[in-house]
Amino acid sequence: MKLSTKNLLGIKDLTPEDIQLILSTASQFKDVLQRPVKKVPSLRDVTIVNLFYENSTRTRISFELAEKRLSADTVNFTVSGSSAAKGETLLDTVNNILSMKVDMVVMRHSASGAPHFLAKHIPAAIVNAGDGINEHPTQALLDAFSMTEKFGSLKGLKVAIIGDIMHSRVALSNIYLLTKMGADITVAGPPTLIPKYIAEALNVKVEYNVKKALQWCDVANVLRIQLERQNQPLFSSLREYNQAYGISRQLLESLGKDIVIMHPGPINRGVELDSDVADGPFSIILNQVENGVAVRMAVLYLLANREN
Hints:
There is one protein chain. This protein is an alpha/beta fold. The protein has 12 helices and 9 strands. The chain has helices spanning 16-33, 58-69, 90-98, 114-121, 137-151, 169-180, 198-202, 210-216, 238-245, 249-253, 275-278, 285-303; strands at 47-52, 73-78, 104-109, 125-131, 158-162, 184-188, 205-207, 219-222, 260-262. A 5-stranded parallel sheet has the order 7-6-5-8-9, with helices on both faces. A 4-stranded parallel sheet has the order 2-1-3-4, with helices on both faces. The longest helix is centred in the last third of the chain and has 19 residues, at 285-303.
């Protein structure tokens, strides 16, 4: 089986069959990662450029590790050490890189739609590693993989996405994916951080009371407050946000049931999650990090158009 698309620009473009193929391939690669020798020659002679115009730790390292595990040749590009800092355009930068015979570009950019722009202009396969406030498809895929490991299936699963929905590309990709795979979704947080028409536009429920959202869900995917994307104050203070919308061990224990806690990272400890929740028995956050490598291996392998 092959993917229906040559690029991974967003979950919006994937079919449920594409998603299932990526998740099942990731499961095979996770088995590989448990072996003493964690490397396979699947992408030998494939050259991949990691093109990061925006800061990243987990995503960049996860992609680099996935590429190394697949035996790909990698080139790492960051804006601060490049001609882009001198004013070179995005297209010029990529055309220069492509002249070096690159097969695939993994790209993170602060402008929504930047990977889509590139895909129209260059022949290499593009993987979106996060564009503005639009999408972060591999994060949604690793979240889905982590939930599938825990629950067996996404169909009928009740997932609450909690926090800064307005500025989160993770939220949008998760909503697209979970909807396609038959899960039920509630978004929760302050009214100022939830887009007005999200319920009608994306077929999700909206809840402003976090405890009610937690009582309803099987999984809570808790998002970081993205102060760097907020042009004006949207709540009074981080302390008050924590009191009204933060998740504490005491709050979880008051629910009378077990739920799974997820977070795409980095965590603002003491704001959206208390440390004893992030590090506690409810949390699968470190599983998400581990699964990120297997999922990104699957994406790169399938986009390189190799036969299973």
